């Protein structure tokens, strides 16, 4: 689709964050249909760049039936003792056509809503971040992430 780059840049401009676009089928392959957090393994491009950092500890994600799908990337940083774990949160927009940001992104990108665009949006998810939430620096990995199960 010719407008996907313009759409991605517009979304990055609006959110002031990085935006990664992943095929929905790949996202559904790595998260659990229950919506419960799972440890992410074999993540697809372009998300894999988030988890290949040298100090990476683990990555957990949730989606599909989770009301706030997302990805948490946990890194170890001994220089931050006693808060040796850094958590970067990425919001996942699974149903982007219905999100308020969708119309705003169309305006900023100066593109019209078309059947082709809607099909593209429906067949992809949008990973936006990183966000530093209240638990960015922690002494131990939060329970919901630490106890995330393997998919399957």
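Q: What amino acid sequence fits the structure above?
A:
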């Amino acid at each position: 689709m010719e407008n996907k780059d313009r759409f991605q840049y517009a979304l990055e401009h609006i959110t002031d964050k990085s935006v990664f676009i992943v095929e929905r089928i790949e996202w559904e392959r790595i998260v659990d249909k229950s919506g419960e957090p799972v440890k992410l393994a074999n993540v697809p491009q372009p998300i894999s760049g988030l988890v290949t950092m040298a100090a990476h500890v683990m990555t957990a994600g949730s989606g599909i039936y989770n009301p706030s799908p997302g990805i948490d990337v946990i890194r170890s940083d001994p220089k931050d003792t006693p808060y040796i774990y850094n958590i970067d949160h990425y919001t996942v927009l699974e149903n982007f056509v219905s999100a308020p940001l969708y119309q705003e992104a169309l305006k900023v990108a100066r593109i019209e809503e078309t059947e082709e665009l809607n099909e593209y949006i429906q067949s992809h998810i949008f990973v936006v971040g990183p966000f530093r939430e209240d638990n960015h620096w922690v002494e131990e990995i939060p329970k919901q992430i630490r106890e995330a199960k393997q998919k399957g």
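Q: And what stands out in the fold?
A: The chain has a mean pLDDT of 85.
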